[in-house]
Design a protein that fits this description.
alpha+beta, 2 domains, 8 helices
Length: 259
């Protein structure tokens, strides 16, 4: 596979699935609760089924890891998909939902895309360069130059949504930073990649929630790890921290680890 073409293909996938999301958005639709009480809609299933079909047609030897259907194995390359990241926002008419598309080589992410259908915004990255939007409107996405945790702007999982231990750690970080807002699913990471915030901290995520984000954040000059500062992989524990700089990431990891 020519990995340089991965982002071009990912954008092609997003171009096709974006109108599907918008066709379902703010319409009356059935919402089903999965075993973990998270919601799923016809839009989630439709988008992922389309993505899987297009990937199989283009790359029949590639595997797929998605939120709604079983994994398909592969030796080297696997696409990782979250058709509607932020389904709660989606079903409640909030435009801050997105589609995540990533490519893994072995277990390492080599390409990633964040698409916000309702906002018409998109970030694509390969770990070395990240673009905001595409075509004539494309420009480089660059993280902020904030290195001080006391000046940092943070998006975080609301403490009430986390387990007791995680809640204490998140609260300790909130007390250290300048501004805090509740996390807005994948959109927070796009905003970090473009320098509009400095930290994102979440817990309870699955690989399809965070692995497509890694090349986007790193390509914009930032860092995305677990709460101990370790690289993220398929077997990570779902606790992630993204930062615009390594000093800021290290400071956040110290707070999260010492609380």
């Amino acid at each position: 596979m020519n990995e340089k073409q991965a982002l071009v293909f990912a954008q092609h996938l997003a171009d096709i699935t974006r109108p599907i999301a918008l066709r379902y958005f703010r319409t009356v639709q059935e919402v089903t609760l999965k075993a973990d009480k998270s919601p799923v809609t016809a839009a989630d299933r439709k988008i992922e089924s389309v993505l899987r079909r297009l990937i199989h047609e283009q790359y029949p030897n590639h595997g797929v890891i998605g939120e709604e259907y079983e994994r398909t194995p592969a030796k080297t390359y696997r696409w990782i998909l979250d058709p509607i990241d932020g389904t709660k926002s989606f079903v409640m008419g909030n435009p801050l939902f997105g589609t995540l598309i990533g490519l893994l080589r072995e277990d390492g992410p080599v390409a990633g895309l964040i698409d916000l259908p309702a906002l018409g915004e998109r970030w694509t990255g390969d770990g070395r360069y990240t673009a905001f939007n595409d075509g004539a409107n494309a420009r480089a996405a660059l993280v902020s130059n904030c290195n001080s945790i006391g000046q940092a702007r943070l998006y975080a999982t609301p403490p009430g949504s986390a387990h007791t231990d995680e809640r204490c750690r998140i609260h300790a970080l909130i007390e250290q930073v300048s501004i805090t807002m509740p996390v807005c699913d994948c959109y927070a990471y796009g905003l970090l990649a473009s320098g509009h915030c400095d930290l994102v901290v979440e817990t309870g995520l699955e690989p399809y929630d965070y692995l497509p984000l890694v090349p986007v954040i790193e390509g914009a000059g930032g860092c995305l790890t677990d709460w101990k500062g370790n690289p993220l992989g398929l077997n990570s524990n779902g606790r992630v921290v993204a930062a615009g700089s390594r000093p800021l990431l290290d400071a956040a990891v110290r707070v999260l680890g010492s609380s």
